[in-house]
Amino acid sequence: MAAFTALTVIVVTQVIPHVTLATGITAVVANLVGGITPDIDQPTAPFWKNLPIGRYVGRTFDKFLGGHRFLSHSIVGVVLFGFAFHYLLQVLKPSFPHLNMDVIWWSFIIGYASHLIMDTFTTEGVPWFLPIPIKLGFPPIKSLRIQTGGLIERFVIFPGLMLVTIYFIYSNYDKVKIILHSYLK
Ligand SMILES: [Zn+2]
Prior knowledge:
By secondary structure, the protein is mostly helical.
């Protein structure tokens, strides 16, 4: 949800290049994939649960990583996954000439970064500066942070993000209409 909220806010408030409908849809998918990719290092997270063989593969990963936020939850992780995804898009580019790969890449990164920012507000914190093994969180006092998967996440943060998304769509409705119109022509 945070990934989509971040993408919406950026799309409606910034000057963005005109893209085809195919690029737009692919960018939203890339955004959501980017939003769950950091949890590739957490076997109990949605990333693995949502894959058919995910539970098994996730558990194998768990043995190596201990089920904690690790490399993919750091700046090094952003760079590594950013490069990997960029490479993948370049490989796919000749087969999909109508897609704007730059837009899709940015959309992925926005999703990815929003995940790490949201995790920073949780009790466990985020090891932003790995290999320096310090987990940072906000606010600095742990007890004031949010429990992952807890009631506040489900009943305050999630609906809150939805409201922010709806607010930004409504308050920039003219721009949203222009974007949608250019697709529906
Ligand atoms: Zn995470």
